[in-house]
């Protein structure tokens, strides 16, 4: 099983991936462990964004992924969207909304 907040729990990744429309470019913000990125079919171009350099250093995928160390909001605001993109964004929950004391 994955880490706290991971989407690598049995069945969850598949459910999320099955809802994705066709796309040429896939952007995943708040990449973390990249559970969704690793389990979806590759797009022509895939970009993973995270502020945590350790998460990016530890990330590995079976297909090429451009990794961006920085703020997803800034990246998306400056990105030249053209239409065939899919953005998957699952940012961390605010501490005030969490019931678990694990974090």
Summarize this structure briefly.
The protein is an alpha/beta fold.
Protein described:
- With 103 residues, the chain is an alpha/beta fold.
- The protein has helices at residues 12-18, 35-39, 53-58, 72-78; strands at residues 25-29, 45-50, 66-69, 85-89.
- 20% of the residues are buried.
- The longest helix has 7 residues, at 12-18.
- It starts with 11 loop residues before the first helix and ends in a 14-residue tail after the last strand.
- The protein is built from four helices and four strands.
* Oligomer status: single chain
SSE series:
HEHEHEHE
Poorly predicted runs of 5 or more residues: none
Gyration radius, to the nearest Å? 14 Å
Number of helices: 4
**What class would the helix/strand composition place it in?**
alpha/beta
Largest sheet: 4 strands, parallel
User: Percent range for helical residues?
Assistant: 10-25%
Strand order, sheet with most strands: 3-2-1-4
Question: How many extended strands?
Answer: 4
Q: Which geometry do the CA atoms define?
A: globular
Mean pLDDT: 87
Distance between the termini: 17 Å
Strand coverage percent: 15-25%
